[in-house]
Design goal:
Layout: H1 8-16, E1 32-33, E2 36-37, H2 43-48, E3 51-54, H3 66-73, H4 80-93, H5 95-100, H6 110-122, E4 128-132, H7 140-155, E5 159-163, H8 167-173
Parallel strand pairs: 3-4, 4-5
Antiparallel strand pairs: 1-2
């Protein structure tokens, strides 16, 4: 949690290896996960290690169908049977996506796109799912649906790191809450 410009999104990008894409760098200190230094690790390595980042802004592949977006999320899966199993799991977790599978992603509502992005992330079988502003611009009923889904994922053992302005929803789900201000906890 924290005000705009506090460093919340940058923290997620640093962990996921996406900071380098924006020509950023860690100027001092290091980033550690599970006892290992991951400072400067590539996004590809982090996904391989089970870290998946859903960035702010609902970046769906707009001209592809919902199901094609999900399949892209499983790009590391080498067997078609694993892709099918991943799709079944996502559709079981998010039944609305099964109904939308043939719809063009760019025509989905904002809430449906957010569900799609979480489903796409789940195709990568994350151990740590980082999600940036999942409720941004959504109606209260959709915010509830998103946080119910995140609670379900948490219950399945997926670790979550959430940047969220809706403090009450985030803290109801969290084991720990952190407030960032000017890059400091």
């Amino acid at each position: 949690l924290g005000p705009n410009g506090a460093g919340k999104s940058t923290t997620l990008k640093t962990i996921s290896g996406m900071l380098d894409v924006e020509e950023g760098r860690v100027a001092s200190g290091n980033v550690r996960m599970l006892g290992q230094d991951i400072t400067g690790a590539s996004a590809e390595r982090m996904v391989a290690d089970g870290v998946v980042h859903v960035v702010e802004g609902r970046k769906v592949l707009r001209h592809m169908t919902a199901e094609q977006n999900l399949v892209v999320g499983g790009h590391r899966l080498t067997r078609m049977a694993d892709v099918k199993q991943g799709l079944e799991r996502v559709y079981g977790l998010i039944p609305r996506l099964a109904e939308l599978r043939t719809r063009t992603a760019g025509y989905l509502s904002g809430g449906e796109q957010q569900l799609l992005l979480i489903g796409r992330a789940m195709m990568a079988r994350p151990r740590l799912l980082m999600i940036d502003e999942p409720s941004l611009g959504l109606a209260p009923l959709m915010v509830k649906e998103i946080f119910d889904l995140l609670a379900k994922l948490r219950g399945e053992g997926v670790s979550l790191l959430i940047v969220e302005q809706h403090a009450q929803a985030a803290l109801a789900l969290a084991d720990h809450g952190y407030i960032l201000e000017n890059g400091r906890v």
